[in-house]
């Protein structure tokens, strides 16, 4: 088998320069945004830091390089951090570097400082509850933070986009990078500043004491055993009672599908059970030591990738399940197999932490060689797909026998070579990302259904901001207004929901048929943009035929699936530098990067990537294959 | 379409008399008639007549009308063709120079006079009158929550019905809503099939979808047919064919038309051959980019070098208002043929024709590479 060709492809897309810390080419980095901003930022700053690690006497130089504005920002950052953390044992020089490398973002810098000092005390990194640090610093630092948050945003635009995509980044209602806009921007800052104090205090109050909530999508090739693994885990954790399990056992035996009894916990429709195949994302939840986990069991079948994408779009982290059976791992891992496509998709959707369950090891008598062989192959591939080595954990298990799921293994063959964590511990070790609670409210609708009372419900992930019962929301693209009657998270009534939550919202004052999947609920004061046409920067994956002007594609934007046309090829870019290689190319072939214009068949709710990562990214698919990932750089109204 | 009469002189001036026999013929007529042509057909007019006593009565009369065409409107859904223009032959009811509309009617002959019949128009007449009529094809292309019922004839793909439903996703312990919505969605599709597909004409009904939707729907449909004793469905069960498509959107029709099982079944291959030709173009562009070009400028240059092996051109370009522009395209077609090249005129109503239209409407596969074309300008795609 020849993998090298595929690797070339992935190489070009994501792993341009493979290097532990800096594993993505600078121009493609933006495609791989990190949901854990607090961890992502320091990486960007590593350019600076590594240089300055050499010498400590560089202090004056660092500061003198800065513009007056930056100096002022720096000073106020130091002030704020000192105010937050009290007297510091860190030399000023180092502090300056940390702040600069965090783009003057106080929260992040504070985290970095804390991380550093924690590391000094050699505490396990995973235990740092980044979210709480933010909340605790929040109250005192808000004023400045918000202001700089915005400018930090601007900086990241400069960092992340090419000159070409930058110039048009001034759609209507978008903060424009120019001094003359100062006044209007300031008012904006002040407005959201007040909002931010409220929201963060509220967030801390509401969520401060409870376990962190983590959303995990389970992915992998068809029949890898995802549903069985999760069903068994849920059963072992007592989430499924014995009576129900007994019923599943009996009924599945009746239809000759007894091996699917655990899968039935998540595969609930008649069609899924009869065929033994997951078709739409199954949901459930369970608790680990430190977390409340919502699990999204994605379908592995190629034809259900649209459903898998909508599930993965709502997840913080992913569990990749591979079948260790001889021949089966290879099928899923070959080109065209979903082990690859799924991993690439979740990475493009912003997931950075991955656990890999090497499943069905019972079929190869818990062979260490097989485990090592598979881990090795996956490691190489995942690294090229843009995952950090430290963020990927491998765990041996069997979903059917229940080995190494919630308890230490008992199987002797496994015990001889494995003494690492069980699956539940691996899940517990995931880090919860920072939630952008103080940005304007956005929720992209993933499901619409009738509730028990009056009105109807929509559900989806709160991408940014927060929402209270009784607030008014706008449904976009139709721009109809509606009222929030009640809020739920997993059937529990709430008074407020925050970024990161998968919420169910009961709406009133709007007809159910006027709302569809892929619509966005937003703050009427600060609505999302609506347009059928935009410019984007895309990275083209493997293609069988090239993309030309007028190419028909299917656009996947959050849960929205809509036909679209690549209406213009504006320029082809150098993959690593982002420079324009050719204007108006005739076509785009494999593994290229380009600026294109996309015309959607009807208006959609969207955002610039620089304003909102979650609503500024999309995938293009053709004939059931993902051909490109893109970032919206300009909205054409 | 039936050809009744044809009289065209050496200069290409003259007329043809045609009788449209089926909806598709209206589409052919639409492509034949240009502004400035004369169309003569009978039509019903309301006539006011004043009696000697001064009271006026109005009654309907059928009269022959000849107009110099100024505007042409085609309604795809109804397959209606409406012409507007000045009357050029006075008769007892209609004055010279008065504006009139003329709807072409099924089974009623019309005479079309042109100053110049070019090769493309003559070919269209021939194609329209080809008696070896093809089997009509119907397709239901679907995914959860979206279905389109399409009719595919030799030169048209018409979406007869689009059924959209919001299907709640499966939710824990809440599965009935999902299944009920699905059943209702399927019921609507069945109704659509019964309303829009004429099983006397249609020889084959394709049900296409990703996943198992098509199987699920097919099973449901015939369960319901047995339950309600629906003879139409039961008697035509053998006409149904289940085919995979990657989505339920219309443009996945091209996957269906490439499926060997479908290609075998349909005797008429115009739609399928257009899909194939475009596919060849794209493959060439991928493998030998210097042998595939699109856009008028590039294609004309390639033609000057006698390099065109296959010309793909949308019929849309021949319907343009600018007479000279149309002439240029006709000349291009003639010239490619003279040089031994193949010309495929795509129907803009087919899925691949739509795609070609987006791709400037004109593309060519060359006999030999012409890298110089690529270099000479970068403004090709600007418009
Ligand atoms: N021997 C063995 N069989 C397993 C194991 N886990 C799952 N299976 C079997 O693999 C088959 C597929 O299991 P599922 O859980 O439905 O797989 P899936 O990944 O959820 O499949 P899709 O959701 O359709 O992609 C079933 O017959 C399971 O019994 C395992 O650990 N060992
Ligand atoms: Mg499954």
The description of the largest β-sheet of chain B is: 7 strands, antiparallel
CATH topology type of the largest domain in chain B: Nucleotidyltransferase, domain 5
Strand order of the largest sheet of chain A: 2-3-1-4-5-6
Count of all domains of chain B? 3
The largest pleated sheet of chain A is described as:
6 strands, mixed
Query: Total domains of chain A, how many?
Result: 4
Order of helices and strands of chain B: EEHEEEEEHEEEHEHHEHHHEHEHEHEH
Query: Percentage of helical residues of chain A?
Result: 25-40%
Number of helices of chain B: 12
* Main interface by residue count: A-B, 54 and 43 residues
Main location (chain B): cytoplasm
Family (chain B): Belongs to the eukaryotic release factor 1 family. Pelota subfamily.
Domain eRF1/Pelota-like N-terminal (chain B): 1-130
GO molecular function, one term (chain B): metal ion binding
Blueprint (SSEs and pairs):
The complex is a heterodimer of chains A (637) and B (383).
Chain A lengths: L3 H10 L12 H4 L7 H8 L1 H7 L6 H7 L2 H18 L6 H10 L4 H15 L9 H31 L2 H4 L15 H26 L4 E8 L6 H11 L5 H13 L15 H6 L6 E6 L3 E7 L7 H8 L4 E7 L4 H6 L4 H11 L5 E6 L8 H17 L7 E5 L15 H4 L7 H6 L13 E9 L5 E9 L1 E3 L3 E5 L3 E10 L2 E3 L1 E3 L3 E7 L11 E3 L6 E12 L6 E2 L2 E7 L2 E14 L6 E4 L3 E2 L4 E14 L10 E6 L2 E12 L1
Helix pairs in contact in A: 3-8, 4-7, 6-9, 7-8, 8-9, 9-11
Chain B lengths: L1 E7 L5 E6 L3 H10 L5 E13 L5 E20 L4 E8 L11 E5 L6 E5 L4 H10 L7 E8 L2 E7 L4 E8 L10 H22 L5 E8 L3 H16 L2 H5 L4 E5 L8 H4 L3 H6 L4 H18 L4 E3 L1 H9 L3 E7 L8 H16 L3 E5 L4 H8 L3 E5 L4 H6 L7
Parallel strand pairs in B: 8-11, 11-12, 14-15
Antiparallel strand pairs in B: 1-2, 2-7, 3-4, 3-7, 4-5, 5-6, 8-9, 9-10, 13-16, 14-16
């Amino acid at each position: 088998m020849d993998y090298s060709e595929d690797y070339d492809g992935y190489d070009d897309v994501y792993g341009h320069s493979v290097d532990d810390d800096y594993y993505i080419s600078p121009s493609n980095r933006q495609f791989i945004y990190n949901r854990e901003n607090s961890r992502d930022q320091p990486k960007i700053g590593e350019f600076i830091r590594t240089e300055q690690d050499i010498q400590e006497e560089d202090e004056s130089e660092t500061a003198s390089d800065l513009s007056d504005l930056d100096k002022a920002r720096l000073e106020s950052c130091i002030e704020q951090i000192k105010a937050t953390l009290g007297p510091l044992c860190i030399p000023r020089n180092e502090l300056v570097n940390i702040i600069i490398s965090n783009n003057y973002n106080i929260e992040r810098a504070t985290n970095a400082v804390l991380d550093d000092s924690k590391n000094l005390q050699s505490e396990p990194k995973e235990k740092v509850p980044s979210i709480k640090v933010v909340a605790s610093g929040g109250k005192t630092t808000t004023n400045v933070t918000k202001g700089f948050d915005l400018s930090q945003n601007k900086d990241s635009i400069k960092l992340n986009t090419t000159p070409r995509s930058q110039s048009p980044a001034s759609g209507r209602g978008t903060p424009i990078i120019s001094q003359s806009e100062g006044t209007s921007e300031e008012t904006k800052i002040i407005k959201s500043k007040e909002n931010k104090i409220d929201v963060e205090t509220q967030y801390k109050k509401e969520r401060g004491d409870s376990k962190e909530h983590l959303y995990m999508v389970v992915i992998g090739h068809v029949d890898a055993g995802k549903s069985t693994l999760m069903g068994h885990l849920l059963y072992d954790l007592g989430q499924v009672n014995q009576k129900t399990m007994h019923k599943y056992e009996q009924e599945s035996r009746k239809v000759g599908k007894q091996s699917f009894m655990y899968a039935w916990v998540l595969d609930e429709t008649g069609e899924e059970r009869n065929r033994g195949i997951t078709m739409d994302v199954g949901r459930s939840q369970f608790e680990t030591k430190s977390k409340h986990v919502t699990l999204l069991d994605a379908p592995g079948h190629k034809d259900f990738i649209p459903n898998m994408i909508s599930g993965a779009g709502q997840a913080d982290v992913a569990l990749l399940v591979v079948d260790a059976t001889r021949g089966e791992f290879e099928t899923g891992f070959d080109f065209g197999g979903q082990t690859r496509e799924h991993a690439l998709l979740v990475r493009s959707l912003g997931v950075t932490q991955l656990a890999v369950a090497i499943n069905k090891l019972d079929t190869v008598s818990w062979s260490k060689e097989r485990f090592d062989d598979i881990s090795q192959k996956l490691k190489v591939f995942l690294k090229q797909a843009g995952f950090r080595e430290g963020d990927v954990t491998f765990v041996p298990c069997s979903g059917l026998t229940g080995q190494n799921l919630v308890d230490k293994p008992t199987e002797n063959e496994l015990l001889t070579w494995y003494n690492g964590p069980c699956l539940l511990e691996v899940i517990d070790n995931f880090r919860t990302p920072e939630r952008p609670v103080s940005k304007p409210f956005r929720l992209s609708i993933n499901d619409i259904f009738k509730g028990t009372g009056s009105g109807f419900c929509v559900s989806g992930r709160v991408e940014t901001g927060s929402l209270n019962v009784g607030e008014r929301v706008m449904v976009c693209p139709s721009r109809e207004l509606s009222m929030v009657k009640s809020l739920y998270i997993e059937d529990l009534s709430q008074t407020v929901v925050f970024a990161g939550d998968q919420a169910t919202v009961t709406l009133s004052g709007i007809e159910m048929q006027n709302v569809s999947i892929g619509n966005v609920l937003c703050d009427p004061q600060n609505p999302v943009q609506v347009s059928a046409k935009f410019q984007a920067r895309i990275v083209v994956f493997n293609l069988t035929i090239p993309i030309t002007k007028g190419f028909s594609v299917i656009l996947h934007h959050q849960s929205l699936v809509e036909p679209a046309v690549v209406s213009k090829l504006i320029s082809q870019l150098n993959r690593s530098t982002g420079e324009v290689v050719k204007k108006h190319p005739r076509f785009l072939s494999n593994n290229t990067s380009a600026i294109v214009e996309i015309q959607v068949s009807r208006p959609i709710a969207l955002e610039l990537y620089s304003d909102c990562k979650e609503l500024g990214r999309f995938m293009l698919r053709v004939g059931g294959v993902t051909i490109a990932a893109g970032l919206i750089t300009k909205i054409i109204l | 379409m039936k050809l009744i009469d044809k009289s065209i002189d050496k200069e290409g001036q003259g007329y043809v008399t045609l009788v449209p026999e089926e909806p598709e013929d209206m589409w052919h007529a639409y492509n034949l008639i240009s502004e400035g042509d004369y169309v003569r057909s009978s039509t019903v007019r309301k006539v006011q007549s004043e009696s000697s006593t001064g009271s006026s009565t109005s009654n309907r009369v059928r009269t022959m009308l000849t107009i110099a065409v100024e505007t042409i409107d085609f309604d795809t859904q109804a397959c209606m063709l409406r012409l507007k223009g000045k009357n050029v032959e006075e008769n007892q009811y209609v004055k010279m120079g008065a504006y009139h509309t003329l709807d072409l009617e099924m089974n009623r002959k019309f005479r079309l006079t042109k100053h110049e019949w070019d090769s493309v128009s003559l070919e269209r007449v021939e194609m329209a009158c080809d008696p070896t009529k093809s089997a009509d094809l119907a397709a239901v292309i679907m995914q959860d929550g979206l279905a389109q019922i399409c009719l595919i004839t030799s030169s048209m793909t018409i979406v007869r019905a689009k059924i959209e439903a919001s299907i709640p996703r499966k939710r824990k312990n809440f599965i009935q809503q999902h299944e009920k919505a699905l059943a209702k969605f399927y019921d609507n599709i069945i109704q659509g099939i019964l309303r829009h597909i004429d099983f006397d004409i249609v020889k084959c009904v394709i049900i296409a979808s990703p996943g198992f939707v098509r199987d699920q729907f097919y099973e449901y449909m015939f369960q319901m047919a047995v339950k309600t004793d629906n003879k139409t469905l039961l008697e035509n069960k053998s006409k149904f064919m289940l085919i995979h498509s990657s989505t339920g959107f219309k443009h996945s029709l091209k996957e269906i038309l490439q499926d060997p099982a479908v290609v075998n079944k349909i005797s008429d291959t115009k739609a399928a051959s257009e899909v194939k030709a475009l596919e060849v173009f794209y493959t060439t562009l991928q493998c030998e980019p210097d042998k595939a070009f699109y856009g008028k400028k590039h294609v004309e240059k390639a033609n000057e070098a006698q390099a065109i092996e296959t010309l793909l051109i949308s019929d849309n370009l021949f319907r343009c208002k600018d007479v000279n522009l149309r002439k240029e395209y006709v000349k291009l077609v003639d010239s490619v043929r003279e040089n031994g090249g193949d010309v495929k005129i795509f129907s803009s109503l087919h899925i691949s024709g739509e795609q070609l239209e987006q791709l400037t409407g004109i593309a060519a596969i060359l006999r030999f590479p012409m890298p110089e074309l690529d270099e000479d300008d970068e403004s090709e795609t600007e418009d």
